[in-house]
Amino acid sequence: MDKILTVVIPTYNMESYLEKCLDSVLVEQVIGLIEVMIVNDGSKDSSLLIAKRYQNRYPGSIVVVDKKNGNYGSCLNLAFSLAKGKYIRTLDADDCFDSIELVKFIEKLCSLPENIDLVLTNYVVNIVGTGKSRLIKQKGFFEKIYNHIIDFEKNGIIYNIHAATYRTSVLRDNHIRLSEGISYTDIELLVYSLSYCKSLVLFDISLYRYTIGRQEQSVSMSSYLKNIDHISIILHRIVDNYNIFFSESKLVYKNQIDALFPLISIFSRLIIIEKRIKRSENNSYVRLLESVMEKDSYLSCKMLALKMTCIFYFKLWYNGDRCKNKFALNSLFLFISYLKKIKTYILQ
Hints:
Elements: E1 5-11, H1 18-25, E2 34-41, H2 47-57, E3 62-67, H3 71-82, E4 87-90, E5 96-97, H4 99-110, E6 118-127, E7 132-136, E8 145-146, E9 164-167, H5 168-173, H6 186-194, E10 200-212, H7 221-226, H8 228-240, H9 242-245, H10 250-273, H11 279-295, H12 297-304, H13 311-320, H14 326-334, H15 339-347
Helix pairs in contact: 6-10, 8-10, 8-11, 10-11, 10-15
């Protein structure tokens, strides 16, 4: 039976969560239509054993790929080349799907025309230790097929890794490759793929269950600080290959910048108020952010439109790290006012 969807599960030391994740995907009604690709990224715990045990139980639906550690991007690069599903999406091993919603989603995918490149859905955020959850819901016209990419922000459309499913051939045929050996490359996938997506559809299906609040997660502030060089590498790659990665369409380009913006927001916060970063490194990060601004007028306008708050933090940083380009510094400072909204952007 042909597979309609490949679910890629990058896995590194996820023995505590992997079984729950897999159980949420292996739903009897649709299991024959799904390829579950577990990419074991050099785990040192029993993740690989768990994956192989499930593969033995579901040999027609589970593929286990064991590789040396190369981080998230390397897992997806491999999956793009191996996937058999018409569509492809990711699922973190410490998250899960809503099994009932998955059945609905597969039914919708099977009914789609041949040429739909991007499918966007709702998702739910679960907050560890609180028992609270939040539905992140799309606001566009559900099940309407758009034969062109529209302004996501203007139409209330949420575009992130938890909402997105791609036609596999779009990623494979256009040789989408993510940076390897670093974190946060899901942002690269969001940005790079949009240049090639020509059509989309929204489904009122709350498929993904995204858990936040674990200290070890890559989206915790301690992880951002630890891996600030990873963010720097991504931004350098974007600056160095600007004309390759970004669309000539102003509308698609705007969506790409909006997808990139949360990562730049976090980067700005770190280089402005984190005194644990060495000054020499801080200055190089400032120059990098300036180069991003110089490349992109839309991003600069977004920064300048923000209200000026938290001036105390700005003065501390500015007095400690004098930089010649005061205009750029003022622009950086404007990001501080956005910090209250960063959490919302991450959830979206």
